[in-house]
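Open question from group meeting: does this chain pack into something compact, or does most of it stay loose? Before anyone orders reagents, we agreed to write out a predicted structure and look at it together. Recording both the input and the output here so the notebook holds the full record.
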Amino acid sequence: MNSIHVFLKLLFGFFTSKAIALYVGPSGMGLLGNFRSFLGLIENIALLGFQNGIVKYISEHKDHPIEYRKIVFTSGIIVLFSTLLLSLFLIFAVDFLTHSILKDQDFYQYIFYLMALLLPFYIGSVYIISIVNGLHHYKSVILVQLISGVLTLGISLWLIIFFNTIGALLSLLIGQVVLCFILIFYSTKNHLFKGVFSFQNFDVKLIKNFSEYAFMALISGVIGSFILLQIRNEIINQEGLFVSGVYEGLQRISSYYLLFISTIISLYFLPKLAQQNSIKEEKEIVRTYLYYIIPIFGLGLIALFFIRDFVIQILFSPEFKSMEHLFFWQLLGDFLKAISLLFGYILIAKKQTKIFIITEISSLLILYFSTHFLLQKNTIIGVVQAYSLTYFIYLIVLIFYFRKLLFSSSDKMQ
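Structure tokens returned:
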């Protein structure tokens, strides 16, 4: 079901990318990339990293109604409060955001007002998905996302075709909002929030448990998103919006096939890792991922490299031809990232905060400074070279840290 879901998302992405290429062009896509990075930053701040904590604690307490209600209500109240604060920030910082994110395109100001209005629904979709994931309702999550994807595709194409760049910016918000309303319907039908909405369910003790995830999210999500935004701004400042748009097109392709990895980890592996596993069970989870998922993913990347010209022609327009020489380093970086992702999720699931923070900060610093140096030295290809270098170093460090889990024959807890 996940494979079908990813395939359809790829298909939907094809139509959306083609429409953006034809009606917005590389320069518009450059602005789109900046706005998407900013949207990711806001999402990570609003959620405070609670989504991973929600999956873990609901996985552990899904059969205990009292604890379940406390987890859902306490996390929901805090996420709602942070989201409303961010909505106010978006309203009062419109001029600053228009200058820094959309490069003084004043006629796009109202995008941020609309974002402030829709943000609670946008964040709400991620929040509810985390609850459903924690309950291990895998098929329901996929079905809901498929229905949302079909509706979002139609709305996005209409916005892009008739409103060009403005429509493309709006389409980034619409998808999660549509998903939120479908999830609300699903939650009501399946009584996911039955007995939840009572302040008696607010548990201060849970805040401490969630705070560890918030701290990890501050590093990986917030700082990571900020650095990605800074990298995109450097590309725009040095190479211009056109080249930035070509780079954004490559990132769109990357995000489509990485869906296969990210969804299967969040839907299947994270809930299993979040449970109290023995070393033997953890080894089996890692083996399943490395022996079955990664080889299929790697073969797909090799095939993509050899048909990259065809993919660019199909997905975009002749203006994006220069993307071709960026593929090798991007695909290599994505392969290394796919391997390292599971180990990163183990750190999150097991709340190994210290090593998580050390590795995340180190990798983000390597990414930023190597990108800055290689962009100056090798122009745009230096950005994807820095990406591969970062994940190569990151993976080596994680393999060393998890050497006992990977190479030890002992199944005893360390």
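Observations to bring back to the group:
The two ends are 36 Å apart (CA to CA).
The chain has 14 helices and no strands.
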